[in-house]
Write a structure and sequence with these properties.
The complex is a heterodimer of chains A (446) and B (221). Helix content of chain A is 52%, strand content 21%. By secondary structure, chain A is of the alpha+beta class. In chain A, the strands form 3 sheets. In chain A, strands 1, 2, 3, 4, 5, 6 and 7 form a 7-stranded mixed sheet that branches. In chain A, strands 9-11-12-14-13 form a 5-stranded mixed sheet, covered by helices on one side. A two-stranded antiparallel sheet of chain A has the order 8-10. The longest helix of chain B is centred in the middle third of the chain and has 15 residues, at 105-119. Chain B has helices at residues 10-22, 33-42, 59-68, 84-92, 105-119, 152-163, 171-178, 189-201; strands at 2-6, 26-30, 47-51, 74-79, 97-100, 126-129, 132-135, 140-143, 146-148, 169-170, 207-210, 214-217. The chains are: A alpha+beta (446), B alpha/beta (221).
Chain lengths: 446, 221
């Protein structure tokens, strides 16, 4: 069940106050009732004693000396001497003494609730033997309607005051809760005002409640990270757009120029060949971007098979052979036979990317060195002019040392893609530059 | 008119070069910023078509350095970045105009023509000298009511003379503005083309020789 903090606070507080008020009311009315009863009982006992004092027994003659006129309305009595009823106020009413001793008991008097006091005493017999005493019982009953009415009245007054207090405290609680929750409300509206398009908003300065600081600080951190991630995403998207626009511009210019006028067939052919080359280059770029996106999304599955790594490296070298020859590069290889279980296709992409980089970025007439020992593949090339700062950035997407497309075909996503793939294969890749030699070291799990 | 194209992406570089050449421009190309800057400093180009992202020296830097040295050349920036900030940066670094990739070749030609006119403080794309009317968009020439056909090189020479109508134009200037590095270098080629023009334009002659200086296009001066 979800309840608002406001409801919880109000219900909880009001219930607590109500419980206290009810308890106070009960205790007060109980005390008042007790006091009233004590007073009633004192009066009842005093009157009974008074009645008993009126009794005189002269020489064995027992007389009912109780004057009925001394009785107030709602009172009744019985007088017993030596277990014999001598007199009573009303023949229709029978009173029953308490079994032993003197004491109070509850009775009904003409259908009305009443209390009676039974007095067991002794009456002195005057005139007879000196100091002879006769046991007597005097019972006086009195209806409690008056005292009950007073107690009821007081209970009503106390309850009324309690109820008014409850209503008043409800209002106070509503106000206090409203004030106390103001920072939460402000925070909620501040959060509601945040738009995905503008994540520069920070919440911390807008709230004064210390209790919320932990929450707002965390939210601010989260906003900061989100903002940075969004900015990175925007930058990447802009880079992707830029990378795709350049070949598109080339394609458009090439085709427009060809169509500009009537041309010999070989001109059209060369324009088409050029367009095809641009299309292939763009396809490779899109494929790399897609692989990278899939790797980012964790959607790439591995298909591990036993591989002769040295042979895979030789296959990769065959593919860059023409380019290396064209650039006058010396290719030095030291390949030990290495067999391991890995994903052949992904490992081929890693090797192809590193070899393409080495072939294109080596200085004209320089050297490429490829060594393989114990599942550690090292591919290096001479003629590297990268500074240590720049080396740290080679795995950044779309980063290129001189912010251009040259050598052509390098869009700045080959290294990030290679790194992702190596990590997916459970290996590591490290880059270092030693004496103008760019060295990529790939360590693969055996 | 002579144009320098600095662009590292070869399909664009070659298409722009060939397209401009077909429009009658003398065109030189460079594939990186260093070569581009050197060429721009050595030759009096009318317009430079300049990519922003270049190896070695980027386009913005090239414009800045050229302007620092007082170059008045018209610069058309090419870029794949199209945010307002990118365009502002490009123009503020000293470029005259800005074109976002991918672009239409015809738009590039029009912008180059506009920059050429601006370089000679001409606004009207139709040049008029005496009874000679040169439409620089259609690249058509009329004298009076008669249309005259010219080869691209002849037209380029005539347009250059017309842009500077009334001024003495030296052979060197003609050579520098009408010919590129791919042209055959023969010392008398300018005189030969001027004589072709004279022949096609007819009488009364509009091209006058200033012996020891050069040529003037216009009414008898």
């Amino acid at each position: 069940m979800k309840h608002s903090i406001r409801t919880r606070l109000i219900v909880g507080t009001v219930l607590a106050i109500a419980a206290v008020l009810v308890a106070i009311t009960l205790i007060l009315s109980g005390l008042v009732r007790g006091a009233l009863r004590d007073q009633f009982d004192d009066g009842l006992r005093a009157k009974t004693l008074e009645l008993a004092a009126q009794i005189e027994i002269n020489a064995g003659e027992i007389e009912n000396e109780i004057d009925p006129r001394t009785l107030a309305p709602g009172e009744a009595y019985e007088l017993w001497v030596r277990d014999k009823m001598i007199g009573k106020s009303d023949d229709r009413i029978d009173l029953v003494a308490v079994p032993v001793g003197s004491g109070f008991s509850e009775v009904t008097l003409a259908g009305q609730p009443a209390r009676q006091f039974t007095l067991r005493s002794e009456a002195r017999i005057e005139g007879g033997e000196p100091d002879r005493k006769v046991p007597i019982v005097v019972i006086l009953a009195r209806t409690t309607s008056q005292v009950d009415a007073a107690a009821h009245h007081i209970t009503m007054v106390v309850s009324g005051v309690g109820l008014a207090g409850l209503v008043l405290s409800l209002l106070v609680v509503l106000l206090v809760v409203r004030l106390a929750l103001a920072p939460l409300r402000d925070l909620a509206s501040a959060i509601a005002a945040i738009r995905a398009s503008d994540l520069s908003t920070r919440l911390a300065p807008q709230t004064t409640a210390v209790e919320l600081a932990a929450v707002t600080n965390r939210l601010d951190e989260l906003l900061g990270r989100l903002g940075a991630a969004f900015a990175r995403e925007r930058d990447l998207t802009a880079e992707v757009a830029h990378e795709l626009r350049t070949p598109l511009a080339g394609l458009r210019a090439t085709i427009q120029l060809a169509l500009d006028r009537e041309r010999p067939a070989e001109r059209y052919r060369s324009a088409l060949e050029q367009s095809l080359a641009i299309t292939r280059e763009t396809e490779r770029l899109v494929a790399s971007l897609l692989s990278l996106a899939r790797l980012d999304a964790g959607q790439t599955a591995l298909h591990a098979t036993p591989i002769d790594l040295d042979q895979l490296v030789r296959d990769g070298l065959d593919k860059v052979h023409a380019r290396a020859t064209e650039r006058g590069l010396r290719v030095v290889t030291e390949l030990e036979p290495v067999t391991l279980t890995s994903d052949r296709d992904k490992l081929s992409v890693v090797i192809a990317n590193l070899l393409a980089n080495a072939t294109d970025y080596a200085d004209q007439g320089g050297e490429i060195r490829v060594t393989l020992t114990d599942s550690v593949l090292r591919i290096s090339n001479t003629g590297c002019t990268l500074s240590p700062d720049q080396v740290d950035r080679v795995f950044e997407r779309f980063w290129r040392a001189d912010a251009s497309r040259s050598p052509e075909g390098h869009s700045g996503i080959g290294m990030p893609l290679t790194q992702k793939l190596v990590e997916l294969l459970g290996g590591t890749i490290a880059i270092e530059v030693v004496d103008g030699r760019f060295i990529a070291t790939v360590r693969l799990p055996r | 008119m002579r144009v320098l194209v600095v662009e590292d992406y070869s399909p664009i570089r070659l298409a722009v070069r060939d397209g401009l050449a077909e429009q009658g421009y003398a065109v030189d190309v460079a594939s990186n910023g260093e070569d581009g800057l050197w060429l721009a400093e050595q030759n009096p180009y009318d317009v430079i078509v300049l990519d922003v992202m270049l190896p070695k020296v980027d386009g913005l830097e090239i414009v800045k350095r050229l302007r620092e040295k007082g170059s008045q050349v018209g610069v058309l920036m090419l870029t794949a970045r199209d945010t307002v900030a990118d365009r502002v940066t490009g123009l503020d670094s000293g470029a005259d105009d800005y074109l976002v990739k991918p672009f239409d070749l015809s738009e590039l030609f029009a912008r180059v023509r506009a920059l050429v006119r601006r370089g000679y403080t001409v606004k009207d794309p139709v040049l008029r000298v005496a009874d000679l009317v040169i439409d620089t968009v259609k690249r058509s020439v009329k004298r009076g009511e008669t249309s005259i056909a010219f080869s691209p090189r002849e037209y380029a020479l005539l347009e250059y003379l017309a842009l500077r109508a009334g001024e003495v134009v030296t052979r060197t200037e003609i050579w520098e503005h009408v010919y590129d590095f791919r042209s055959d270098a023969q010392s008398n080629v300018v005189d030969v083309y001027v004589s072709y023009l004279r022949k096609k334009l007819g009488q009364p002659s509009l091209i006058h020789t200033r012996r020891g200086y050069g040529y003037v296009l216009g009414d008898e001066a």
